[in-house]
Design a protein that fits this description.
Layout (H helix, E strand, L loop, with lengths): L1 H10 L2 H7 L7 H4 L6 E7 L4 E7 L6 H9 L10 E6 L5 H14 L1 E5 L4 E3 L1 H6 L5 E4 L4 E4 L3 E4 L2 E4 L1 H13 L4 H8 L8 E3 L1 H7 L13 H8 L1 H5 L4 H8 L1 H20 L3 H14 L7 H17 L1
Parallel strand pairs: 2-3, 3-4, 4-6, 5-7
Antiparallel strand pairs: 1-2, 7-10, 8-9
Helix pairs in contact: 1-7, 4-5, 7-8, 12-13, 13-14, 13-15
């Protein structure tokens, strides 16, 4: 362990990449049929920040895809690009090449509500962020590196040593490393949430200023779920406290009007028309605020 840690500290991760060639997957047992990693931009309206969402299985070429998207992402007050992770793991060498690209960009790794980051995603990619956060129902999944010998899966000590060296270089304690590279074998996955990660895996949590304010913390927490919505209007409403409040007010009012209406079909049709012709044509907060206020006023007068 010490020799690998020293080597990593002096020369970075590049010397290990050759040793990783031919190793099987950290997480492949659990992610063989998962789609490949894709990176996309999500504009978080309350933070007014373009973040990166990385979702899918880690494979060769992910570093280049990440670099391309990172060019248009925004930085926080510390100069970090936010990378939201949702991945079952994948190829170890590809994960370390992604980390090399992340180091050049400077990244804040986050696993928010609705997201899971397992295996190579958790012990390599997530652990390599300059800032690191688990929020809401987000989960990390850990187990040992492994290699195949016939039909058997055997723990891979070299892979585990390289993963541990990288994590220790990033400030994760030796005790925490043992929890996720030694205590769980190739056949089992340990899923842990924020409380365990931040209290028991010392050094793995490294929250930033964004988590100190309730509004920005909440915005980051729901970022992954909001990013999965298909329309721009839906993403904006989901990601902004003011718009979410207006949406709830309208939903409650609409529900009461529908319950008491003699012609329920007309009420439903009017609501669908408003969604299609007014709300869903908006691409910014000001437009949506006007659309919601107009619709609320109409229903109150009806």
């Amino acid at each position: 362990m010490r020799s690998a840690e020293s080597h990593a500290g002096q020369a970075g991760l590049a010397p290990f990449l050759h040793a990783l060639r031919g190793l099987l997957l950290l997480g492949g047992l659990f992610s063989a049929h998962a789609p490949a990693m894709e990176f996309r931009i999500y504009h978080q309206p309350e933070l007014n920040r373009r973040m990166i969402v990385g979702q899918g299985r880690i494979e060769d070429g992910d570093a280049d895809k990440f670099r391309a998207v990172a060019r248009i992402a925004d930085r926080d007050d510390e100069g970090l690009v936010t990378l939201i992770l949702d991945s079952p793991g994948g190829n170890v060498e590809a994960a370390f090449r992604l980390v090399d690209a992340m180091d050049n960009v400077r990244v804040y790794t986050a696993v928010p509500d609705g997201a899971r980051c397992a295996s190579a995603c958790a012990s390599i990619v997530f652990a390599s962020g300059e800032r690191r956060s688990i929020l809401g129902s987000g989960l990390l999944g850990f187990h040992s590196c492994y290699k195949r010998q016939g039909a058997a899966l055997l723990s891979d000590s070299l892979c585990n040593e390289i993963v541990a060296a990288n994590a220790m270089q990033r400030g994760v304690t030796h005790a925490a490393i043992n929890r996720f590279v030694a205590d769980h074998g190739a056949h089992e996955m340990a899923w842990v949430g924020r409380n365990v990660v931040c209290r028991s895996l010392q050094g793995l949590c490294k929250p930033g200023p964004i988590e100190k304010r309730n509004d920005t913390h909440a915005a980051l927490t729901r970022s992954f779920d909001c990013s999965r919505l298909t329309s721009m209007a839906s993403q904006l409403v989901c990601g902004d406290t003011d718009l979410a409040r207006a949406d709830k007010e309208l939903a409650d009012l609409y529900g009461r009007k529908l319950a008491s209406a003699a012609n329920k079909t007309r009420v439903r049709d009017d609501q669908r028309t408003w969604l299609r012709d007014e709300r869903n044509r908006c691409s910014d907060k000001a437009c949506l605020q006007r659309a919601y206020r107009n619709r609320i006023d109409v229903l109150k007068r009806a």
